[in-house]
């Protein structure tokens, strides 16, 4: 059979799988808590795999591979940043968030921060900030469109992104976090296979292994094998490499990841979840070597993000299909988690616990809860449609579009999260609100307004650092405003 036939069959089987699991998840959803955090009933290994599946999106399997293709081994700083810095962030944040949630019973990151700081203003602010993750979702859909249109003859980019959007929206709407976690287990197995296969296959293609690859890259451009690359968007200096490391640390605190932590049934099982993540993350990150391999094989690709697409075409159609479906699984699992987060923030945090609670919208409690649950069936389609609109014309680097959302959330929320967990004596609500606003403002100004910082990752890191400084200064200044019980912690 041809590659076209194998691809269509493989994708059909995968779509049937995710829709079936979505309907299985639907049977377990009785309310908003089940939709958002699966009723805090999940085990550590499934959640560890789901955490990794949400973490490793198309940004990894296409965007970061594209970085390595475009800028050589300098792009591998992303590998170290994720495996080291993000893992450290996971370890530091996970236990504190889950243990505290035994008492707080939060169903989202905005809800958790609001309860820790006793501030509905912070809840509403975070809910609005999280909407910027639509750029992250859009990046996933763009990757899906590029991949499928590049692998299946006769399928155009627009039709492909519409198909990916419809399937993703359908199964997250029907099954909520149950569907997200269950599908992520199968998706993660495909992603692990893809990472390991790509790495090992390159060692077999090049008789001299990584040494031969490095020699070829150095002959193309000496900066492809140096620590920094002046031509790179993110790794052009030691300062921006620090920014990449720091923002990847912050990535562990993204809302779509924290809701997996909140869903853990027994907080004592957190170490098992972490070790599951460590194994899965290492295997998935190996796919980045595909960018180096493809650069050595063909340095003239017009679109760097297509490097992994061209690489998988080198193998038997069955292998190419499995690898392609693995990438589709990566982008759909992440998009699902992000749609889930934004939907929960709007329906629960913004509507139910901010607008209705404070009488801005006048509605009886029982009716408001039914309405909020109803929103979870409508909002995914709206979010999907907006994301789709953003990428009708594919971006130059989908990894950059993804990080517009990630950096935007981190710049506003990481400092309040860290202070609540580790510096409760100065975790003042007013300081958290101002710190979040200033951090977000710095990020927007540096990258989106004045274009002073060309790296979206570094711009996010500077926003986070400024937010930390503001919170530290104001937290100490307003320490006397803390409730007595919190000040004594």
UniProtKB/TrEMBL annotation:
Its main location: membrane. The keyword Disulfide bond does not apply. It holds the Pfam family SSF. It comes from the Bacteria. The chain crosses the membrane at residues 6-26, 47-72, 78-97, 117-137, 157-178, 185-206, 235-253, 274-294, 314-343, 371-392, 398-424, 431-450, 456-478. Gene3D superfamilies: Sodium/glucose cotransporter. It is a multi-pass membrane protein. The keyword Membrane applies. It is found in: Cell membrane. GO terms for molecular function: symporter activity. GO terms for biological process: carboxylic acid transport; sodium ion transport. It catalyses: L-proline(in) + Na(+)(in) = L-proline(out) + Na(+)(out). One of its GO terms (cellular component) is plasma membrane. Keywords: Cell membrane, Ion transport, Membrane, Sodium, Sodium transport, Symport, Transmembrane, Transmembrane helix, Transport. Belongs to the sodium:solute symporter (SSF) (TC 2.A.21) family. This is Sodium/proline symporter. It comes from Succiniclasticum ruminis DSM 9236. The lineage of its organism: Bacteria, Bacillati, Bacillota, Negativicutes, Acidaminococcales.
């Amino acid at each position: 059979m041809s590659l076209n036939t194998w691809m269509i069959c493989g994708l059909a089987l995968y779509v049937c799988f995710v829709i079936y699991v979505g309907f299985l998840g639907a049977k377990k959803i009785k309310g908003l808590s089940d939709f958002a955090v699966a009723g805090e009933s999940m085990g550590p290994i499934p959640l560890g795999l789901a955490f990794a599946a949400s973490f490793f999106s198309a940004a990894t399997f296409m965007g970061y591979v594209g970085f390595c293709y475009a800028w050589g081994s300098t792009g591998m700083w992303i590998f170290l940043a994720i495996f080291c810095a993000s893992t450290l962030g996971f370890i530091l944040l996970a236990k504190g968030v889950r243990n505290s949630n035994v008492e707080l019973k939060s169903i989202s990151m905005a809800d958790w921060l609001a309860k820790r700081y006793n501030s509905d203003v912070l809840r509403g602010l975070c809910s609005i900030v999280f909407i910027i993750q639509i750029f992250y979702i859009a990046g996933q859909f763009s990757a899906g469109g590029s991949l499928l249109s590049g692998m299946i003859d006769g399928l155009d980019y627009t039709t492909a992104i519409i198909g990916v959007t419809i399937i993703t929206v359908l199964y997250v709407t029907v099954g909520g976090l149950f569907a997200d976690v269950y599908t992520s287990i199968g998706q993660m197995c495909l992603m692990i296979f893809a990472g390991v296969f790509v790495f090992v296959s390159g060692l077999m293609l090049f008789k001299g292994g990584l040494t031969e690859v490095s020699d070829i890259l150095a002959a193309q451009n000496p900066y492809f094998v140096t620590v920094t690359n002046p031509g790179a968007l993110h790794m052009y200096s030691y300062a921006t490499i620090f920014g990449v490391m720091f923002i990847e640390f912050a990535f562990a605190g993204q809302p779509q990841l924290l809701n997996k932590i909140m869903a853990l049934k027994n907080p004592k099982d957190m170490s098992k979840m972490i070790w599951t993540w460590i194994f899965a993350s290492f295997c998935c990150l190996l796919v980045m070597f595909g960018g180096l391999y493809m650069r050595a094989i063909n340095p003239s690709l017009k679109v760097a993000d297509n490097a992994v697409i061209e690489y998988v075409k080198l193998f038997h159609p069955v292998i190419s299909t499995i690898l392609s479906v693995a990438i589709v699984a990566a982008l759909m699992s992440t998009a699902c988690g992000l749609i889930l987060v934004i939907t929960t923030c709007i329906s629960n945090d913004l509507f139910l616990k901010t607008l209705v609670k404070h009488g801005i919208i006048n509605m009886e409690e029982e009716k408001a809860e039914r309405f909020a649950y109803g929103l979870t069936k409508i909002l995914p389609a709206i979010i999907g449609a907006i994301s789709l609109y953003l990428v009708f014309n594919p971006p130059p680097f989908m990894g950059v579009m993804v990080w517009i959302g990630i950096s935007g959330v981190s710049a506003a929320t990481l400092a309040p999260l860290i202070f609540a967990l580790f510096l409760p004596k100065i975790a003042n609500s007013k300081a958290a609100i101002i710190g979040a606003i200033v951090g977000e403002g710095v990020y927007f100004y540096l990258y989106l307004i004045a274009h002073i910082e060309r790296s979206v990752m570094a711009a996010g890191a500077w926003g986070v650092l400024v937010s930390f400084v503001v919170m530290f200064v104001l937290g100490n200044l307003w320490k006397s405003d803390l409730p007595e019980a919190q000040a004594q912690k």
